[in-house]
Design goal:
The chain starts with a helix and ends in a 6-residue tail after the last helix. It folds into 3 domains: about 120 residues, Orthogonal Bundle (Butyryl-Coa Dehydrogenase, subunit A, domain 1), CATH 1.10.540; about 110 residues, Butyryl-CoA Dehydrogenase, subunit A, domain 2; about 140 residues, Up-down Bundle (Butyryl-CoA Dehydrogenase, subunit A, domain 3), CATH 1.20.140.10. It is an alpha+beta fold and about 400 residues long. The radius of gyration is 22 Å and the shape is globular. The protein has 12 helices and 10 strands. The longest helix has about 35 residues.
Length: about 400
């Protein structure tokens, strides 16, 4: 046993990897590494050379939709109906690599797969699944997820959107805000209050060409500028009975979808943080002041060390949650742990990385400040810090503090 340990120690000896000091790759299977490296290569070749321009121009590159579909990114972790059926860890690794490119473009995968497709997959009828999931997996149809409203963000139970029975169908009225991909979507998964007894909140599949449906882009953003956020309006939208998602009753339906999206964020935030760290590390080794690379300065090294430590810790959290998700044992409050910690730390890392870049760090040539700006949105959507803190507080004490 001693000889075996010594042999492993020797094999692990040598120059440390500044991108993976703890050797976390050893915790991944060959298949997981292959998936990660494939998406990493795609991001390096297709997104990173262009994202500065897309962000500056506040332009979502619509052509990227089919390219993402070609990479098997839509509904990646869902089984059947033309979905790739990959593991939760593989999906997480893909989210990490996509967000190393840009949070807004990772959001496309989250909205399409973790929210819209997940809702249909979890709660839809067989007819609904067969109609929508195969073309959505191929990127032929785009979905959006309508839960948040202008006056109902952290408290969706106060939503004002209403679906009332009329004859053999429903009539939908109301509005939703901060809805990703709304102007590009073919179908909107919309959550509305009904007059149904017991669990009045129900989900509906609303084709976006329905009379009375309108989507408007939210512009002039300082964050997520390469993504599409919208406001949806429903004015007397008529829907047939079969538009309702039969398996979703009450807020447990949309919350289960939010947890799918939150899980992807746990990984994605560490991708943004890692990219910012790597940019700062490379810059510090090349940039000279006072006749020496700034990487040689004690204060710069402290910043780099602090960033690397939190990235490795956050990645371990994401991987642990992924293993639990694949085992079917992951709980919502554990996802809140990861979302709260990893996004909060990622913002701090990106801001610190910008300081190493000095004045050059405020240009689109470098990624840390763009990542930091994007993460302000990531920190807010799918549950604010305050919401996740209270979820965890309730888990610790058994006492809910929302009211």
């Amino acid at each position: 046993m001693v000889a075996k340990v010594e042999g492993e120690a020797k094999r692990g000896a040598g120059k440390p990897d500044p991108h993976d000091l703890l050797g976390l790759d050893a915790l991944l299977s060959e298949e997981e590494i292959a998936t990660r490296d494939r998406i990493r290569g795609f991001v390096r070749e297709r997104i990173k050379p262009n994202i500065g321009e897309w962000f500056y121009e506040a332009r979502f590159p619509e052509e990227i939709v089919q390219e993402f579909a070609g990479q098997g990114l839509f509904g990646m972790h869902l089984e059947g109906y033309g979905c790739p059926g990959r593991s939760a860890v593989e999906y997480g690794l893909a989210c990490m690599e996509l967000e190393a490119g840009d949070s807004g473009l990772r959001t496309l995968v989250s909205v399409q797969g973790s929210l819209a497709m997940s809702a249909i997959h979890k709660f839809g009828s067989e007819e609904q699944k067969n109609e929508w999931l195969p073309p959505m997996a191929k990127g032929e149809k785009i979905g959006c997820f309508g839960l948040t409203e202008p006056s109902a963000g952290s408290d969706p139970s106060s939503m004002m959107t209403r679906a009332r029975r009329e004859g053999s169908g429903w009539t939908l009225d109301g509005s939703k805000r901060w809805i990703g991909m709304g102007t590009l979507a073919d179908v909107a998964v919309v959550w509305a209050k009904t007059d149904e007894p017991g669990e009045p909140v129900r989900g509906f599949l609303v084709p976006t060409d329905s009379k009375g449906f309108r989507a408007e882009v939210i512009g002039e953003k300082l964050s997520m500028r390469a993504a599409v956020q919208t406001e949806l309006h429903f004015e007397g939208v008529r829907l047939p009975e079969e538009a309702m998602l039969p398996g979703a009753k009450g807020l447990r339906g949309p919350f289960s979808c939010l947890n799918e999206a939150r899980y992807g964020i746990v990984w994605g935030a560490m991708g943004a943080a890692r990219d910012a760290y790597e940019e700062a590390l490379a810059y510090s080794l090349e940039r000279e002041q006072f006749g020496t690379p700034i990487a040689s300065f004690q204060l710069t090294q402290k910043k780099l060390v602090d960033m690397m430590v939190e990235i490795q810790k956050g990645t371990m959290v994401a991987l642990h949650l992924g293993r639990m998700k694949d085992a079917g044992s992951l709980r919502p409050e554990q996802i809140s742990f990861g979302k709260l910690n990893n996004v909060r730390e990622a913002i701090a890392i990106c801001r610190e990385a910008r300081t190493i870049l000095g004045g050059n760090g405020v240009t689109t040539e470098y990624s840390p400040l763009r990542h930091a700006n994007n993460l302000e949105s990531v920190r807010t959507y799918e549950g604010t810090d305050e919401v996740h803190t209270l979820i965890l507080g309730s888990a610790l004490t058994g006492l809910p503090a929302f009211r």
